[in-house]
Amino acid sequence: MEAIYIPQLTKAPERTEVVPIQEFVPGLETLTPVRGRVKVQHQGNYLEVSGKAETIVTLTCHRCLKQYNHRLMVDTSEMIWLDESASLPYEGAIDKEVAIEDLIESLSPQGYFNPIEWLYEQLCLEMPQKQLCEKDCAGIPADISNSAEKIGDRRWASLEALKKQIP
Fold first, then answer.
1. Cα–Cα distances in Å, from 94 out to 14, 86, 98, 123, 137?
2. CA-CA distance, 126 to 128, in Å (whole number)?
3. Would strands 4-5 and 112-113 be described as parallel, antiparallel, or unpaired?
4. φ, ψ for residue 25 (rounded to 5)?
5. What is the C-alpha to C-alpha distance for residues 81 and 78, in angstroms, rounded to an integer?
6. Quick one: which of 35, 34, 33, 1 has its CA closest to 17?
7. pLDDT tens digit string along 48-103?
């Protein structure tokens, strides 16, 4: 999948390009190819990007460590501002306080928009933070039979034997 050249998008019908997706996304391990579409519309000083896609990923349960399959679905939209300064390297302070209105995505109006990269980011944001195979997963079962012997440190075994000999 090739990136979309933003100035070329202004010449497209209705200034819109719809990109069908049916492929594996690089960097994202999935069982099935990602299927869906990404719609990019040039709105003058910003791009309106929307997408719908789905795939199946294999996750590991955080409680019992079993692997399970999870359907990952994305149905989202985003505005990406077109700003000439977006292509310039950042030369400010490393630890700078940033205002909330500065937390926006921006691209150069003469640059490229990569729909696969955008879709990758959206799919990563949809990954569940709490990965559980079942809602009531009990976790790893604990074997408590003979726990005193199993938990003990072998280096103390001779001292334990000596303690048993003393009446």
1. 41, 17, 11, 29, 43
2. 6
3. antiparallel
4. -90, 125
5. 10
6. 1
7. 999 999 999 999 999 999 999 999 999 999 999 998 775 656 566 666 666 666 66
